[in-house]
Amino acid sequence: MNALHVAEYTHSLGLQAKTASALMAKAPAAIKNKALKALARLLRENVDALQIDNAKDLERARAAGLAEPMVDRLKLSPKVLETCAEGCEQLAAMPDIIGEILGMKQQPSGIRVGQMRVPIGVFGMIYESRPNVTIEAASLSIKSGNACILRGGSEAIDSNKALAKLVQQALAEAGLPQDAVQLVQTTDREAVGQLIAMPQFVDVIIPRGGKGLIERISRDAKVPVIKHLDGNCHTYVDDPCDIAMAVKVADNAKTNKYSPCNASEGLLVARGAAAEFLPRIGAVYAAKGVEMRGCPESLAILAAVPAAKLVPATEQDWSEEYLAPIISVKIVAGVDEAIAHINHYSSHHTDAILTTNHVHAQRFLREVDSASVMVNASTRFADGFEYGLGAEIGISTDKFHARGPVGIEGLTSLKYVVLGEGEVRG
Ligand SMILES: NC(=O)C1=CN([C@@H]2O[C@H](COP(=O)(O)OP(=O)(O)OC[C@H]3O[C@@H](n4cnc5c(N)ncnc54)[C@H](OP(=O)(O)O)[C@@H]3O)[C@@H](O)[C@H]2O)C=CC1
Ligand SMILES: N[C@@H](CCC(=O)OP(=O)(O)O)C(=O)O
């Protein structure tokens, strides 16, 4: 496709989405739930076929030398597909919030004023090469009565095309417009440029990705944006803290999975806890092959850990999102320095304190300026499903409209509803 064809193609996706969105906005809950249940069934019926399409993506990715954590996120294993199917069923079982009226109150003039929850309309989403996101985004879009245009990562194109076909089949089975969920079928980035510049069709753009994507969106978007960007997340081990718990949580926060945006990339340790904590977490990371990029003081302690991969940290490391078996390690004086470091270097995604001091915990929750702030829990929990939202569009690193994991509510807005009996303003 040349640039002109990409523009025409993206324009047609926009027009179709806009038309479908009007039908989705008034679709009854039972019909939307029928589509979600049909999608769950189709995912289960097509596990083998989906593996074949996914294998094409995996083969290309391996041939291109994609890093193992990135290959891992590309996989559509039967387990991943079952989780997607269960997610659709869970969304179907959740109450429909579209059309609900909140806070209706009579005013001195006699009119009653409340707010009605309505779909946003059409959202365009650009996301990484993780094909299960196609199902999470599609299912949330259906449940929230929106239409969407999905542009997944180019490495996942075959998997995404196969999944999008099933989504459209499910929509058709339920009698909903197939164009309510459309996948951009080309990997040409020109389509991204078009998608973010069609305010006549697209109400909001959700970019889910790293720094290259941020730059493009900031430069070219003509549509409102809810950013879902990089995660330079921290775990701060306080003094005092339960050291055994801190080792378990800091291990999970880094090594449970390396590619997600909610994995911890920085480990801060209070000076008073370092002598006891660092050798223990150092041994765990060493056993898992995690490289530790430390400040001089932390390296002096970690040097005693057999087989530890130690590298002196540079200034750049404090800002780095590795998405790999690497973590930066810094000893800080205490909670004040930890909060200051996080507010300076973190990407305001998710940060955690591990402590037994209530005042320190409260200060961390109030003073750390991130979308999720946690006490005694792994940053890996920053996820819509884990937060009880059923599924997630992603983790918003913006402050407006939606912040943190975004579920159904994040895809809606509230409009004012005014009910009168002929009142006029004096
Ligand atoms: N906050 C959140 O919810 C989430 C954030 N992330 C973040 O995403 C990043 C990891 O994913 P990664 O795949 O490396 O992210 P990228 O930003 O490289 O890619 C994400 C998507 O953006 C597209 N893209 C990237 N740059 C451009 C550009 N200049 N113009 C047009 N499209 C572009 C990619 O397309 P193409 O395939 O063509 O490269 C892909 O579809 C990490 O920073 C991670 O934290 C990941 C998941 C969730
Ligand atoms: N909320 C998700 C994070 C998804 C995420 O960041 O994905 P990716 O960057 O593709 O590895 C989870 O924890 O499963």
TrEMBL record:
Origin: domain of life: Bacteria
HAMAP family: ProA
Species of the source: Acidovorax kalamii
CDD domains (alphabetical): ALDH_F18-19_ProA-GPR
Official protein name in the record: Gamma-glutamyl phosphate reductase
Entry EC number(s): 1.2.1.41
Role according to the record: Catalyzes the NADPH-dependent reduction of L-glutamate 5-phosphate into L-glutamate 5-semialdehyde and phosphate. The product spontaneously undergoes cyclization to form 1-pyrroline-5-carboxylate.
Major subcellular site: cytoplasm
Gene: proA
